[in-house]
């Protein structure tokens, strides 16, 4: 299949999958909010399932936006990036257990950030490092001027060739011969760009790989 | 009144609203939605933007052109400023992005009628 045809198919599928997904999510919300006789363990499981479905919904939304607009769309709100990044990291580590050191700078990280984009970026940076590279892995979230900078460092495992195509890879099937890059890192680069910033990576033979995502606050959305 | 071309979504919203004492009418396309609003004159109309035959924006424009006093709530999978602006310009009072948490849905309905029950 030609790449453009594959993208059209992906966007069409995404559009059609989102509708039943929205219905299922509404029922899950209803059970969570109105259901009685549900114990805490089941309620936690329901919350996890709902979060996973919301993530699928965001990914599908990204595909639809990219196909229709040629770029991703962010909707910033006034939020504290620190707790959002920490929560996204905790959820990623439930799915892919690993030791990751988190460093939140003491700066005020409240600004106009897209919560979903931030969650997706943290998830992709960490899951990619955990799956494809060596420990120790650490993540730092800090300001650089007005901007937000998310930095993930690892203990190595990426070649220069892989580095060069890190954010360029588009639709791939996990485990195919294209190797260690996946849709997640491409998505990370696109989300950073949509947020006015960029994603970069560098490899040091001694210090491992450093992936840096910079986000520019705003623009403010009118409701 | 709830208008959505997904029967599952319509059933979910109907199920939710009935718990709070709302009487719910349903439509699965824009023309039927418009006729229902004209004939039944519900207090609130929840209308999906992507309806077949007549899209949600056009349904809202025609309801407003008729001068009907109905609290119009848009539902959409898209939530950019441009999407919201288009809804508001068409006559919607609120633009909700799917998936819609029930608390957000309740708040949007209450904004229109000032209480938790009525006809939609």
Q: What is the structure about, briefly put?
A:
The complex is a heterodimer of chains A (223) and B (120). Chain A is an alpha+beta fold.
Task: Summarize this structure as a short list of keywords or feature phrases.
heterodimer; A: 223 residues; alpha+beta; five-stranded mixed sheet; 50% helix; B: 120 residues; alpha/beta; five-stranded parallel sheet; globular
Side by side, the strands of the main sheet of chain B go 2-1-3-4-5
> Greatest interface and its residue counts?
A-B, 24 and 22 residues
Shape by Cα distribution of chain B:
globular
Major sheet attributes of chain A: 5 strands, mixed
Structural class designation of chain B: alpha/beta
Number of E-state strands of chain A = 7
Name the beta content range of chain A. 15-25%
**Helical residue percent band of chain A:** 40-55%
Give an overview of the whole structure.
The complex is a heterodimer of chains A (223) and B (120). By secondary structure, chain A is of the alpha+beta class. Chain A has helices spanning 3-34, 40-69, 81-95, 115-132, 160-164, 183-194, and strands spanning 77-80, 100-104, 110-113, 137-144, 147-153, 198-204, 208-215. In chain A, the strands form two sheets. Chain A has a five-stranded mixed β-sheet with strand order 2-4-5-7-6, with helices on one face. A two-stranded antiparallel sheet of chain A has the order 1-3. Chain B is an alpha/beta fold. Chain B is built from five helices and five strands. In chain B, helix 2 (30-40) runs parallel beside helix 3 (56-65). The longest helix of chain B is centred in the first third of the chain and has 13 residues, at 7-19. Classes of the chains: A alpha+beta (223), B alpha/beta (120).
